[in-house]
Q: What sequence folds into this?
DNA sequence: TCTGGGGTCCTAGGACCC
DNA sequence: TCTGGGGTCCTAGGACCC
């Protein structure tokens, strides 16, 4: 491993789901559009051949925005916001249903396009990747500017979509850099730029500082920006946030990150969950709940089988009407991908959960995964055997 | 009528074993 | 009938991310 400076890119597709939908419905370009909710608001063909799109004002339900176009963001709409709340802010916004199959197709397409130019890619979900450019010839000359521009052009040619790229010496800085010039941005940063370009940003922008940590930093330390975090005494961060997280906060604020670009990652869990249209009572609404529960288990089993995996641990997740979340898991003696075995184990978990309160969500999860057909480890002898 | 669905990683305590 | 330290497995919850 050379000690030479690394060149790591972070590529983020711009408003990905919404941009894919705009390819399908170009007449919506420039309009406020959000993606989200169920399947009930498909565009309806009109007698004159045009399409009639649903708008937020007619939405009823518990869905959230998964992606908003930049025009919709101008109204204050953003991903994660409840659609009912969004409807109050901008009722005329077009609402399109989520079509994950289509987004996955475009995801594969843009990643394949990048791989033609730079094959060392770390998947970070459907719409973003890290790319290690360090081995690309001539990258040091311009710190990755030319190859990043070429990647942007190749993605655009392959998908019709724009993306934003940050290139820096590490993943942490690249993730920050890719956001600095969105949409259709290209930002090159070196370590010497951290003070001027990164330190003014809110600490919350750092990948790994979420709402809780950001609130504590501000309330307990008066820290709002990354620069203020960088100036904090390491031992104080460690006292407040623990040895591991405190030390990481300090390093992150100084733009230090040694993590490698990881090209292969094993799945550690698979889950299925659903939020009910109205809160259900475990006993009184049992007739409604039971088939949903069984179907989640069947879907989970199918997911496992599709991935050729088996699970040793099966768990459930409940969300109560007050949004508290509870989990129960059970580890089985033998791994399974069978719907009946999963249903049985999940049923045992459910017996150990309090069910007085109404539920808004029910989920089933498989973990301790292993390849299908892995021979079971030798079992400890049964009591009966010892005295046989 | 606030708050989806799919993930990862970390912590912490108890059981059990050497 | 005290006193250990370390290791693994399991469970529950929480923070965070896309």
A:
């Amino acid at each position: 491993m050379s000690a030479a400076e690394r060149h790591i890119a972070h590529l983020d597709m711009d408003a990905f789901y919404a941009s894919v939908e705009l390819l399908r419905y170009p007449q919506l370009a420039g309009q406020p559009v959000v993606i989200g909710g169920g399947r009930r608001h498909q565009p309806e063909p009109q007698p004159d051949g045009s399409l009639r799109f649903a708008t937020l004002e007619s939405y009823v339900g518990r869905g959230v925005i998964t992606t908003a176009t930049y025009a919709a963001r101008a109204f204050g709409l953003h991903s994660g916001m409840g659609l009912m709340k969004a409807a109050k802010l901008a009722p005329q916004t077009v609402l399109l249903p989520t079509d994950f199959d289509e987004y996955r197709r475009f995801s594969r397409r843009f990643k394949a396009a990048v791989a033609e130019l730079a094959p060392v890619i770390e998947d970070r979900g459907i719409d973003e990747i890290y790319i290690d450019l360090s081995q690309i010839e001539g990258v040091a000359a311009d710190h990755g500017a030319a190859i990043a521009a070429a990647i942007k052009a190749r993605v655009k040619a392959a998908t019709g979509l724009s993306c934003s790229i940050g290139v820096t010496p590490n993943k942490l800085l690249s993730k920050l850099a890719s956001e600095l010039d969105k949409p259709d941005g290209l930002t090159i940063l070196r370590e010497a730029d951290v003070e001027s370009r990164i330190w003014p940003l809110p600490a919350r922008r750092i990948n790994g500082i979420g709402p809780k940590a950001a609130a504590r930093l501000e309330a307990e330390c008066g820290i709002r920006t990354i620069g203020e975090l960088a100036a904090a005494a390491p031992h104080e961060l460690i006292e407040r946030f623990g040895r591991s997280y405190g030390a990481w906060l300090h390093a992150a604020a100084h733009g230090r990150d040694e993590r490698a670009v990881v090209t292969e990652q094993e799945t550690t869990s698979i889950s299925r969950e659903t939020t009910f249209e109205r809160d259900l009572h475990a006993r009184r609404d049992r007739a409604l709940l039971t088939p949903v529960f069984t179907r989640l288990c069947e879907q989970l089993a199918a997911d496992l089988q599709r991935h050729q995996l088996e699970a040793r641990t099966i768990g459930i997740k409940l969300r109560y009407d007050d949004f508290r979340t509870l989990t129960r898991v059970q580890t089985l003696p033998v791994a399974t991908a069978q719907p009946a075995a999963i249903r049985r184990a999940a049923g045992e978990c459910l017996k150990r959960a309090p069910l007085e309160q109404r539920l808004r969500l029910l989920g089933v999860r498989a973990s301790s995964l292993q390849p299908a057909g892995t021979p079971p480890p030798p079992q400890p002898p049964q009591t009966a055997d010892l005295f046989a």
Observations:
- Residues 286-306 of chain A form the longest helix (21 residues).
- The radius of gyration of chain A is 24 Å.
